[in-house]
Design goal:
The complex is a heterodimer. By secondary structure, chain A is α/β, with parallel strands linked by helices. Chain A contains 16 helices and 25 strands. Chain A has three domains: 213 residues, ANL, N-terminal domain (Rossmann fold, 3-Layer(aba) Sandwich); 100 residues, Roll (Luciferase, domain 3); 97 residues, GMP Synthetase, Chain A, domain 3, CATH 3.30.300. In chain A, helix 1 runs antiparallel to helix 2, helix 2 crosses helix 6 and helix 10 crosses helix 11. The longest helix of chain A has 18 residues. Chain B is mostly beta strands. Chain B has one domain. Chain B has no helices and nine strands. Classes of the chains: A alpha/beta, B mainly beta. Chains A and B meet through helix 1, helix 7, helix 8, strand 13 and strand 14 of A and strand 6 of B.
């Protein structure tokens, strides 16, 4: 199996159809496929072990992804936002690689590992030049299509491996070939090193939905591209959606009539933001996707109908689903288990386990799968009676106070219902009496009077058990997030170390 | 036949990729499918001439074998003489 099949089929079915638009150039599926074949032969000639992309999104991403696939070596998109030291150590871990993108930086950080360096322009030009005499051969290699370093919000980055069989399992199980209308266009603004950046390329190409590349997210540029390219589909992380809503509120003009669907994921969506977005985009279908790098992207989704039902329902259980990530894909199994690995019934919190063809759970160093193929996600959550999945933070974020497990989410939910509070985070803080106790960090809305500590404690005490009442409280100007909208809890925890 | 392998019709343009493999003979247009078109000979059997559709998945009644049509042709797919049918997948909203 080889993911290059996805691009090959698109190129067979519509060689002259526009597949990708970037920086003013329009690429047909035929041109992309030829460039991928050319790139593959060049990569084999070079004898490199990986293709590392150190660059923003562009046509080079699909050419490198599918070229690497045909060459039988893993595609490794690297996070260009990492500090030099961290990036240098990742470069060493993929040596010898064909490094595409920021060659000056890569060369300075890791000059002696046998890498070969190409600017984006040179890599693409080389691939196109090699296309005429390309062998068209498909090499199997180790069967690994992509290697993605996890963001490492808790520890050193792990090298997650996604096999061709995982990625094809995901795409063939969720996307109907050539199902997009020729006018359809998908705006891709997530960075290429994120799993959503890879799945967006594969899904759009297999559906034959034209990809419109926004190399680096900017809300005004996003709105401009939706207008000029008549974009029909987009994926956003909540922070991006928040910034778009802000710009529209500020009066930025845009024609959003073409925008039929927005999918979002990658971090917790504030209930207020999604409610505001549903009002602002009344005819747009919203889909919330939950997935991990290790699961080849989406494993559960909350579809447009669920959003509308939750928006207009009076039934509290249905309304609450706006805060859920929906139901598992038909091709994926989900279970909630306790610490001993026993499956828990609906309504009980535990760790989310997933299983399916698309689930890799494999790292360069080891596989995290159980003997019967389940992947423990380290995400905490629960299922409701109808099978809707709710997230409750990372399992590692659970606060253990005197032997009692406390999920940060339950405390945060109560705090965020207060009109003066914009954001809240609960973390475990050192406690001489309990080992660990609850600490909260709060961000107030602009212009609101901060609550005193006792009022905050009272808010929790009225609604939850006394063990949830915070021992320590910090007021922040803003929460620390990474660029994908993931809350950096270790930074919040460090505020309580002194 | 193994997952990932590609097979061609001996009597039409159809090509498939094996998603789920099973024991038995895969046919298209009534003739056994081949690895290499050079081995092809024979004519389309009118009993197996409904045509294949690119991008559709084909399964047997038990779901033991599953093929993805990667190139369409005039023949139709069968396993040991029994016609395969298209697998109807539930349509999902795009989440990427």
């Amino acid at each position: 199996m080889n993911i290059s099949l996805l691009l090959q089929m698109a190129a067979d079915a519509g060689p002259d159809r526009i597949g990708l638009v970037c920086d003013g150039r329009r690429w047909t599926y035929g041109e992309l496929w030829r460039a991928a074949q050319g790139a593959a032969d060049r990569l084999v000639e070079m004898g490199c072990a990986h293709v590392a992309l150190l660059d923003e999104s562009s046509e080079a991403a699909p050419i490198a992804l599918f070229g690497a696939a045909l060459a039988g070596i893993p595609y490794v998109p690297l996070n260009y936002r990492l500090a030099n030291e961290d990036l240098g150590s990742l470069l060493q871990r993929v040596a010898p690689a064909c490094v595409v993108g920021d060659v000056d930086r890569a060369r300075a950080l890791d000059p002696d590992s046998g890498h070969q360096f190409f600017t984006r322009k040179d890599f693409v030009a080389d691939a196109e030049a090699a296309a005429d005499s390309a062998s068209g051969e498909e090499r199997e290699g180790e069967g690994i299509a992509a290697q993605i370093f996890t963001s490492g919000t808790t520890a050193a980055p792990k090298a997650a491996l996604l096999r061709h069989s995982n990625l094809l399992g995901y795409i063939l199980g969720t996307v109907e070939f050539c199902s997009a209308d020729e006018a359809d266009a998908q705006l891709v603004c997530v960075p290429p090193y994120h799993i959503a950046g890879i799945s967006a390329l594969m899904s759009s190409i297999y559906a034959m939905r034209r990809i419109v590349v926004l190399p680096a997210f900017d809300p005004d540029e996003w709105l401009r591209l939706v207008t000029t390219e008549k974009v029909t589909n987009a994926f956003l992380v909540p922070t991006m959606l928040g910034r778009i809503v802000e710009r529209l509120d500020a009066g930025v003009e845009a024609d959003l009539d073409s925008l039929g669907a927005i999918a979002y994921g990658g971090g917790r969506m504030p209930t207020e933001l999604i409610a505001r977005a549903l009002e602002m985009f009344p005819v747009t279908d919203f889909t919330n996707a939950y997935g991990l790098t290790e699961t080849s992207s989406t494993v559960a989704l909350l579809g447009p109908d669920d959003h509308r039902l939750a928006q207009f329902s009076d039934d509290p259980a249905v309304k609450a689903r706006m805060g859920s990530v929906g139901r598992p894909l038909p091709t994926v199994e989900v279970e909630i288990r306790d610490e001993e690995g026993h499956v828990l019934p609906a309504g009980e919190r535990g760790e989310i386990y997933v299983r399916g063809e698309q689930v890799s759970g494999e790292y360069r160093e080891r596989s995290a799968l159980t003997a019967d193929g389940w992947f423990p996600t380290r995400d905490a959550g629960w299922l409701d009676e109808e099978g809707y999945l709710f997230l409750a933070g990372r399992a590692d974020d659970v606060i253990v106070r005197g032997g009692e497990n406390i999920s940060p989410g339950e405390i945060e939910d109560v705090l965020m219902e207060h009109p003066a509070i914009a954001e809240a985070a609960a973390v475990g803080v050192p406690s001489t009496e309990w080992g660990e106790a609850v600490g909260i960090a709060v961000v107030y809305r602009p212009g609101e009077t901060p609550l005193d500590d006792n009022t905050l404690r009272e808010l929790i005490r009225e609604r939850l058990r006394s063990s949830r009442v915070p021992e320590q409280i910090r007021v922040l100007d803003a929460m620390p997030y990474n660029e994908m909208g993931k809350l950096l809890r270790r930074e919040i925890r460090s505020l309580f170390q002194d | 036949m193994k997952p990932g392998s590609k097979l061609k019709s001996a009597v039409c343009d159809t090509e498939v990729m094996v998603i789920r493999a099973a024991e038995g003979s895969l046919e298209c247009g009534g003739a056994a499918m081949v690895d290499d078109k050079a081995d092809a000979s024979g004519e389309l059997n009118p009993d197996f001439a409904e045509g294949t559709q690119m991008g559709k998945r084909y399964v047997d009644a038990d779901g033991t074998v599953e093929l993805l049509c990667v190139k369409a042709g005039k023949g139709s797919l069968s396993m040991n003489g029994t016609a395969l049918t298209t697998k109807e997948a539930k349509s999902l909203p795009s989440s990427d």
